[in-house]
């Protein structure tokens, strides 16, 4: 049976839904970031005229948009809230978190509960992380490329063969990307243009079967090969995190690489790109030293890619 495995990393908590050796889905949480499903209180500081929406100031100073305000709500009132969408960083701006009055809708799932493990099965997180970093997944005869925009996440398909065959071959990779990269909100899929109506219906049917257990709404493929999906958006996908916080993602991966270094000796040398050094908080490095029982030494190498940290155990 599938189960969630939880890895409590330095600077982030990771969750993989696994079945056997297969990774089915992924979640990622950075401590200190408010998440969907969080219950909190906030003071209503503004009601938006002509709507049932407003802005609340949470106890930690964060502003959040509140939907479905009751008519009796007044500015200055303290409200019991549940976060429905975490804040989303975008290029040049930050979208506020969204919330509703607690108890006004079905429970919102928070970070998955599962079995905490010291480390995931070998290579499983690395496969997901590097795929999300590149925003791509291969399929037989082609590749899908996923990227974020302020309006939606776009998935482009490129491959060799007839448009129908390429589109059908890409469907499993699309399902994998949606789950691996934790994508939600508006999603556009740009299939190759398929002129035959029956062939388009075949791709629609394959996509429906692939996403049968993934809650969403979907349009049929139009004559240009475009399909739009809408799914619940609860927070930043891995693609969003790489688009807006790539250095932060890579710094956390460097710590993970350091934590898993093997060998005998009192010193852990973590070799990283210079841009990562400023992102490594003192408390993170202290925790790395505690977990490994080593003195941590940071060295920088501009020849290393951000995504390719190195770690080794030294005698001195």
Reported for the largest beta sheet, the result is:
6 strands, mixed
Number of domains: 3
Overall pLDDT: 93
- The order of strands across the largest sheet is 12-13-14-15-17-16
Structure commentary:
There is one protein chain. It is globular and about 65 Å long. The protein has three domains: 39-101, OB fold (Dihydrolipoamide Acetyltransferase, E2P), CATH 2.40.50; 123-231, no CATH class; 244-314, hypothetical protein PF0899 fold, CATH 3.30.2320. It is 25% helix and 35% strand. The strands form five sheets. Strands 12-13-14-15-17-16 form a six-stranded mixed β-sheet. Helix 2 (163-180) runs parallel beside helix 3 (197-210). It is built from six helices and 20 strands. The model has no long low-confidence stretch (mean pLDDT 93).
Compact summary:
With 316 residues, the protein is α+β, with helices and mostly antiparallel strands. It has helices at 124-134, 163-180, 197-210, 238-259, 274-277, 282-292, and strands spanning 3-8, 13-19, 22-29, 39-47, 54-58, 63-67, 78-85, 88-90, 93-95, 97-101, 115-116, 136-139, 142-148, 153-159, 185-190, 217-218, 226-231, 267-272, 295-300, 310-314. It contains six helices and 20 strands.
């Amino acid at each position: 049976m599938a189960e969630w495995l939880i890895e409590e990393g330095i600077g982030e908590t990771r969750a993989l839904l696994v079945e056997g050796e297969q990774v089915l889905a992924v979640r990622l949480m950075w401590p200190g970031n408010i998440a969907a499903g969080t219950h909190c209180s906030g003071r209503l500081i503004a009601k938006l005229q002509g709507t049932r929406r407003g802005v609340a100031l949470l106890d930690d100073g964060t502003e959040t948009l509140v939907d479905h305000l009751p008519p009796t709500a007044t500015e200055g009132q303290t409200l019991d809230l549940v976060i429905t969408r975490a804040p989303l960083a975008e290029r040049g701006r930050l979208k506020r978190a969204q919330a509703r009055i607690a108890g006004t809708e079905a429970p919102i799932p928070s970070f998955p509960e599962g079995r905490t493990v010291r480390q995931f099965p070998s290579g499983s997180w690395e496969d997901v992380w590097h795929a999300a970093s590149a925003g791509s997944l291969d399929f037989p005869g082609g590749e899908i490329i996923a990227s974020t925009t302020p309006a939606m996440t776009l998935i482009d398909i490129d491959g060799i063969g007839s448009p129908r065959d390429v589109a059908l071959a890409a469907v499993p990779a699309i399902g994998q990307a949606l789950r691996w990269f934790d994508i939600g909100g508006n999603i556009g899929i740009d299939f190759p243009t398929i002129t035959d109506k029956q062939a388009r219906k075949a791709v629609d049917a394959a996509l429906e079967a692939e996403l049968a257990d993934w809650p969403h709404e979907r349009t049929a493929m139009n004559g240009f090969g475009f399909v739009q999906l809408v799914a619940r958006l609860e927070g930043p996908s891995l693609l969003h995190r790489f688009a807006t916080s790539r250095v932060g993602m890579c710094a956390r991966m460097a710590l993970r690489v350091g934590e898993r270094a093997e060998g005998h000796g009192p010193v852990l040398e973590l070799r990283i790109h210079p841009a990562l050094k400023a992102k490594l908080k003192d408390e993170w490095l202290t925790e790395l030293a505690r977990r490994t029982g080593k003195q941590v030494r940071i060295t920088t190498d501009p020849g290393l890619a951000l995504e390719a940290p190195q770690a080794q155990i030294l005698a001195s």
